[in-house]
Amino acid sequence: MAFPTESLDELRNQSRDLDTGAFLAWALTTFGPSEPGVPSLAFATSLGLEDQLVLALLDEQLTYDPAPSGRIHAFTLDTGRLPEETLAVLHTNRTAFRVPVAAYHPEASAVEALISRGGPNLFYNSVEDRKACCAVRKVAPLGRALAGRRAWITGLRRAQSVTRTDLQRVEWDSANGLFKLNPLLDWSLDQVQAELARRGTPVNTLHAQGYPSLGCAPCTRAVAPGEDERAGRWWWEQADKKECGLHADPTAPAPARSFKFGGLS
């Protein structure tokens, strides 16, 4: 199938009035496989609340697909420092959903070099050292997971933090050279939790212990009542620094050219 040339604005207009389920159906159709069995659409999951909901919704959309893994590449980034509770969710998902979730790991040599330079907990030293750790354990594996894709889906919401208030439902990810789709953009945490409960979707047990946002064990703590949802992530840093580099600036413009699905024109 030949894909039409589209602009970012056109993609936003196409999907603007779709509810979340219809938006995901649109994404699966619009960014379909470039060839049989080779997904051009990816879904990155942290195995937290939002991503468990997106996985459930995607699984629902692909209920009657004989090979759902050929339509979308779902993956998580196993940094080597994840809590056991998070790894338990990855295991549970293997039987709870038809869509498999692959795990990408950091390169061993890069981790060894990082630790040799600053020690196993260098991320506490400075923002620069913390971002260096994130670059090795998260950003580089993400690049491998997204290689050759046309778009990726996230569980980002505007209400999560001050660094995400400018998010759009459809964005151009200039860092990775593909479109980024945020289906839960305007959902509140309460809405996410209510929908997960209604569906009986398995969730990370850390959420019940005060962890609305999940990351590596040494860099995540429970939040106190009244704190921001991501206050427990890198809690020793300023709120406007709390991104790991996976998500590029959403205000960065798309290249001044049109896009042809199946490759950039």
Q: Nutshell version of this structure?
A:
This protein is α/β, with parallel strands linked by helices.
Biggest beta sheet attributes? 6 strands, mixed
The CATH architecture would be 3-Layer(aba) Sandwich
Beta-strand share of residues: 5-15%
Strand order of the largest sheet: 4-3-2-5-7-6
How much helicity do the residues have?
25-40%
CATH classification class: Alpha Beta
The average pLDDT value, as a whole number, equals: 87
Shape category: globular
- How many DSSP helices? 7
The ordered H/E elements are EHHEHEHEHHEEEHE
Query: CATH homologous superfamily?
Result: HUPs
Overall tally of domains:
1
Alpha carbon gap, first and last residue: 16 Å
Uncertain runs with pLDDT below 50, 5 residues or more? Answer: 1-5, 250-265
State the secondary-structure class.
alpha/beta
Can you count the beta strands? 8
CATH fold description: Rossmann fold
Gyration radius from CA atoms, angstroms:
18 Å
